[in-house]
Amino acid sequence: MESGKAVIRARPWAVACFLLPALVLLGALVIYPIGYSIQRSLFDASGDTFVGLDNFQEIFSNDSIRHALRNNLIWIVVAPTVATGLGLIFAVLTERIRWATAFKLVVFMPMAISMLAAGIIFRLVYEQDPDRGVANAMLTTVHDTFSGTSTWPDAQPRPDGPLTVQDDGSYLLEQPVTAGTPVLLPLVAVPQPELSDAEPAATAATDPGQVTGTVWMDFTRGGAGAEGVIDPEEKALSGITVEAVRDGEVVAAAKTGDDGTFSLPAEADGAQLRLASDSFTAPYNGAEWLGPDLITPAIIGAYVWMWSGFAMVLIAAGLASVPRETLEAARVDGANEWQVFRRITVPLLGPVLGVVLVTLMINVLKIFDLVYIIAPSSSQADANVLALQLYLSSFGTGADQGVGSAIAVLLLLLVVPVMIVNLRRLRRENKR
């Protein structure tokens, strides 16, 4: 160390020559932009009038910017914590499997994808239509496995027909039915593709001891059919629950067969018929990931998908340096695996976890690409963050680069404390 200081004192010009290119680049790419941003934040949109701290006052009085700041706080708390936690879990678990290298490669692979490409990928993943969006395809599969789906979600009563829509979504025939007289219950609005496998509708048999009837799609392509009459080309609506209701109570129920007919026992005589609402409820299409309520968690999920591999690699490198004899000694003393992990592994990995956490905190403060690409225009205000607001304020409609520069300065002020904490931690590590 002393010899190095001696060289600096003896040949300061040589040191200056080596440092000059780096200092020039540092000044041009870092110092000057920071200084100009601070200066520009003190002027109005035109850059001609000095306004002092008015632009900073605008930041905390503008609802959009305050919402962006609130979202940034959510990002700082949630995204680094979840990504670091997943990275820790992956790093510890991969120590116990033979195909650890392949697993790490798969988890780390998203880091090779740009934020723009990842945003496009997750914009498709979060599509509302389950036929296109992977997330909702998985949700609807699980939901339909346990809850089932409605039979004919699009079917509706004919506007001038005998059925009326009830508040609970069921369709009611208000005229009491009589045993031995077949009942016709026409429905419309079922798309033709849904009827491709349906059988032709049939007229129910007459049975004096039963209430019979038919539920069918009362529409013939080309308009050749007659209303309220079962025409030869019209299709049956099978699997619909028909209930006989008397004084608000269901006295009998049956499901329509493949030909659309149903049969109820004599108890249904004189009752009203109701087509149960569960036959017509709209299908479950999953969550509205790109809606205002879930857009921020959805984008954080995309970020975690990308950066948990980064956390895993760094933590795995730190885990490789953990003394194995310490872990074995704890096991010999009777500690179980959870106690070894919580009381020994995690404390020894504390410095590495700190590096990962701080790095990701700095990274999420600058998050822009994912939010801009994934959030649709209808939800962009709900997903807004400071970096995106900086862009919108500086270059969007009604651009005001004074406010944009003030947001840039605010971002710098938010990053500085995190950097100071990181530098202090590094100095403590170097002194050990």
TrEMBL record:
Membrane topology recorded in Swiss-Prot or TrEMBL: Multi-pass membrane protein
Annotated PROSITE patterns: ABC_TM1 (PS50928)
An annotated GO cellular component: plasma membrane
Protein name: Sugar ABC transporter permease
InterPro entries named in the record: Ig-like_fold, MetI-like, MetI-like_sf, UgpAE/MalFG_permease
Subcellular location(s) per record: Cell membrane
Record has Membrane as a keyword: yes
Spans traversing the lipid bilayer: 12-34, 73-93, 105-126, 302-323, 344-368, 402-423
Organism the protein comes from: Streptomyces hoynatensis
Superkingdom of this protein's organism: Bacteria
CDD domains (UniProt xref): TM_PBP2
A GO biological process held by the record: carbohydrate metabolic process
Keyword Cell membrane attributed: yes
UniProt KW keywords: Cell membrane, Membrane, Transmembrane, Transmembrane helix, Transport
Domain ABC transmembrane type-1, residue spans: 69-422
Entry's family note: Belongs to the binding-protein-dependent transport system permease family.
